Amino acid sequence: MAAGRGVAAEACVGQVVLPGDVLLLPTQPDEDGERLRLGASAAPRGRLLCGPGLRRCAAGLLVTKCGLLRHRQAGGGAAAGGAYWVDSQQKRYVPVKGDHVIGIVTAKAGDVFKLDVGGSEQASLSYLAFEGATKRNRPNVQVVGDIIYGQFLVANKDMEPEMVCIDSSGRSSGMGLIGQDGFLFKVSLGLIRKLLAPKCEIIQELSQLYPFELVLGMNGRIWVKAKTVQQTLIIVNILEACEYMTAEQRKQALAKLSGN
Amino acid sequence: MKATPLSNCERRFLLRAVEERKRLDGRQCYDYRNVRISFGADYGCCIVELGKTRVLAQVSCELVPPKPNRPTEGILFFNLELSPMAAPGFEPGRQSELLVKLNRLIERCLRNSKCIDTESLCVVAGEKVWQIRLDLHLLNHDGNIIDAASIAGIVALCHFRRPDVSVQGEEVTVYTPEERDPVPLSIHHMPICVSFAFFQQGTYLLVDPSEREERVMDGLLVIAMNKHHEICTIQSSGGIMLVKDQVLRCSKITAVKVAEITELIQKALENDQKVRKEGGKFGFAESIPNQKITTFKMESAAVDTNNVEEQAEEIITKADPPSEVFAKPILHTPGTAQIGEGIENSWGDLEESEREEAAEEEGESEAAAFECQKMETEDTSTMRETKKDEPIVLSDSEEEEVVILEPQELPKKTRTQTNLKQENTSKKAFNKRRRKKRAAH
């Protein structure tokens, strides 16, 4: 497409955008400087948050991933001025700072654990980055192959990613070593985001079937634990199939299962 | 890339599940996954899907001199490749243990069983024989590569057609597919591999292990058999101790499975044959289905077409009538005449006007905008015609200007034309704006 011209960002919300598309923001002057905008919308105050799949460029926002453009209206707080991002679908995970992921311990090197998080590099996790850990009181991660739920402290393309299992106030808030039982499997990143949305229907419907424990990692990994092997397998299969099922098909499948 | 390590909880869970006779995808212990066979457009090309494991097979042939110690036999060449797209742990160019093991199994299964008649591949004894080459590519690894590869191999060989050859005395003629129909290979029987995975020192056994199950298994037993219950190859790996009756039980299971799979292969080959004969569409594009992801499902948007008609009428009544058609020929020079005044192509204009409208008129309905555009191009052309007082340029293409040659006037014309073009564009743009404002009211 033409390099100079772009389309207004508001016009594209909810539509498919392709890499290379330029989205003009309302505060940007038109390319053709002769015209005056009569009744232009008020320029948004505050910072506009540029989310995943978008980059700032001279004219406005440059799309770098193909997917649907989403927008969140200006509210209070950091993203006053609204946020734009692209909902795209992929299976390969790229570490991002602040993401909560499930990692598999592959090695212990000195004072750090090396974890596989599904990215190009292994992440490092210090012994002391657990709640209540001191040099004497080490976490109980003994065996290679254990799984840990943590968040990224450092994740950029120049350095090896670093993970921690405590948040900024020093509390674990659910992170740390994940128990021995249960099952770990992988799905696409889009499904994880869908499951992590507040009031996700899939999880509500599943929780009416059997009680279970669930940990969702932004790197596409899910850990499930239910009372019996059979129940765990059912939940695993439903979550994997949710990718390709419509809502009605899912309701039918769950109705059949709860009838049994 | 390094393969993803297997976590302890997965291992424990899978072993517990095997003890309870449960499998990840809900199969029974002796169940196979779904086998899907699809053929490509060429003869000898097929893709076999065993669950999510996919193998592509391609057979090709070539006339070569035979091996010196076997002057009357054709040559068979088998090659299996693990594509890096199949699994993260596969790297190109690296001869891993798994690759060597799989290649040896395929060779033993297909070559040593003598399923292909190599004598029939001889054209001129001692000089020319057919070399049949089977290339297998693993496209996706979800366990049990050897079964999928053996099915793909034998199906591709059965599907393949080699060019027809006739020998008359010293002369050998190889016919092209257009001259004579290509001839299938002569295949005696179809050996198929069936894999068994063993757990807990041989206590539990699973047929057709998936990738997760393969990671936690103790040992693997592969039996290659044809539908006549003849065992072609048998191999046990992993160092497990198997008892005699276990092996016998496995061979009985193999017989059942091979019968089912052979039937499936026959049906698939017949179907493909029928489709080709009837002239229907064949090939991968037809047989491989589309999978849709419904994570981001967009509802179809309703377009409001209530007052489209009224708006359209409004615009039409306000528009200027189109220009008259000039039927009289205009004589430029002896031998060159022109009927009508061609409109300069407006593709360049359309782009500009479209962009301007998209930026400004978001509120208007699409239909109105479109009508505006059409009307504008008409207007600009009428205007240009009235302003022009020079010979008109006939132009079909965007890039080249077709100039009507008048010898003494040539240089002057090009200069004035460019000026005229510049003049026109600025006037056009200005008038476009004016017209747009009018239509909007």
UniProtKB/TrEMBL annotation, chain A:
Q: Which Pfam families match?
A: KH_6, RRP40_N_mamm, RRP40_S1
GO terms classed as biological process? CUT catabolic process; DNA metabolic process; exonucleolytic trimming to generate mature 3'-end of 5.8S rRNA from tricistronic rRNA transcript (SSU-rRNA, 5.8S rRNA, LSU-rRNA); nuclear polyadenylation-dependent rRNA catabolic process; poly(A)-dependent snoRNA 3'-end processing; regulation of gene expression; TRAMP-dependent tRNA surveillance pathway; U4 snRNA 3'-end processing
Q: Which InterPro entries match?
A: Exosome_RNA_bind1/RRP40/RRP4, KH_dom_type_1, KH_dom_type_1_sf, NA-bd_OB-fold, RRP40_KH-I, RRP40_N, Rrp40_S1
Question: Where in the numbering of this chain does the K Homology domain appear?
Answer: 182-230
Asked if Transport is a keyword of the record, the answer is: no
Q: Where is the Exosome complex component RRP40 N-terminal domain?
A: 15-89
Which top-rank group of organisms is this from? Eukaryota
In its UniProt record, a GO molecular function of this protein is: RNA binding
Q: Which UniProt keywords apply?
A: Acetylation, Cytoplasm, Exosome, Isopeptide bond, Nucleus, RNA-binding, rRNA processing, Ubl conjugation
GO CC terms, sorted: cytoplasmic exosome (RNase complex); nuclear exosome (RNase complex); nucleolus
Q: Where in the cell is it found?
A: Cytoplasm; Nucleus, Nucleolus
> How the protein assembles, per its UniProt entry?
Component of the RNA exosome core complex (Exo-9), composed of EXOSC1, EXOSC2, EXOSC3, EXOSC4, EXOSC5, EXOSC6, EXOSC7, EXOSC8 and EXOSC9; within the complex interacts with EXOSC5 and EXOSC9. The catalytically inactive RNA exosome core complex (Exo-9) associates with the catalytic subunit EXOSC10/RRP6. Exo-9 may associate with DIS3 to form the nucleolar exosome complex, or DIS3L to form the cytoplasmic exosome complex. Exo-9 is formed by a hexameric base ring consisting of the heterodimers EXOSC4-EXOSC9, EXOSC5-EXOSC8 and EXOSC6-EXOSC7, and a cap ring consisting of EXOSC1, EXOSC2 and EXOSC3.
Q: Which family does it belong to?
A: Belongs to the RRP40 family.
**Stated name of the protein:** Exosome complex component RRP40
Q: Which organism is it from?
A: Calonectris borealis
Lineage from the top down?
Eukaryota, Metazoa, Chordata, Craniata, Vertebrata
Q: Which gene encodes it?
A: Exosc3
From TrEMBL, chain B:
Top-rank taxon, per record: Eukaryota
InterPro entries, from UniProt?
Answer: ExoRNase_PH_dom1, ExoRNase_PH_dom2, ExoRNase_PH_dom2_sf, Exosome_comp_Rrp42_subfam, PNPase/RNase_PH_dom_sf, Ribosomal_Su5_D2-typ_SF, Rrp45
Q: Where is the Exoribonuclease phosphorolytic domain?
A: 32-163, 189-253
Keywords of this entry: Cytoplasm, Exosome, Nucleus, RNA-binding, rRNA processing
Q: Which residues form a coiled coil?
A: none
Single GO molecular-function term? mRNA 3'-UTR AU-rich region binding
- GO CC aspect terms: cytoplasmic exosome (RNase complex); nuclear exosome (RNase complex); nucleolus
- Leader sequence range is none
Instruction: Write down the SUPFAM superfamilies for this protein, in alphabetical order.
Output: Ribonuclease PH domain 2-like, Ribosomal protein S5 domain 2-like
Q: Where is this region: Disordered?
A: 336-441
Bias-annotated ranges (Basic residues) = 429-441
- Pfam families documented for this protein: RNase_PH, RNase_PH_C
Composition bias of kind Basic and acidic residues appears in 373-391
Location in the cell reads: Cytoplasm; Nucleus, Nucleolus
Know the name of this protein? Exosome complex component RRP45
Its source organism is: Calonectris borealis (Cory's shearwater)
